[in-house]
Structures are given as C-alpha cells and as structure tokens.
Amino acid sequence: MSGSSTVNAMKKVVQQLRFEASINRVKVSQAAAELQQFCLQNAHQDPLLTGVSSSTNPFRPQKVCSFL
Predict the structure, then answer these.
(1) Tens-place pLDDT, residues 30-49
(2) Which end of the chain is more exposed for a tag (fewer CB within 10 A), N or C?
(3) CA–CA distance from 23 to each of 4, 16, 20, 29, 34 (Å)?
(4) Is the model's pTM score more than 0.85?
C-alpha cells in the first residue's frame, strides 16, 4: 500500500469509529425489561398464546366434498 492510500484507509476507520462512538446505547437490562413489558402487554393479542378460532383460521383443513 502506498502512503496516501494508508492514510485514506485510516481516515475511513477513524470516521467509522467516531460514528459508532456517537450512537446512544441502551443497557441490556433496560432493553430486556422493556421487551418483557411489551410482551406482557400484547400477550392477549398473540395467536400463539391465545389460539386461533376455527372460523377465522385460514389454514384449517378444508372440508371434503364427496358425491356418493
């Protein structure tokens, strides 16, 4: 690598590091608490927890039509 390309590469690295340093971080404990609160608030709307009624289930088995 030539000297100018090394300097340009280092400038890009410094710019990226400055950008990453300026990002506001959230503590894992705070994020986990917020996620848990969100899940508890929306649990009544979750079809995996409450189940899906057979009348609104688009994946229910189709009825067989027979002409016997």
Answers:
(1) 999 999 999 999 999 888 88
(2) C
(3) 29, 11, 6, 18, 19
(4) no
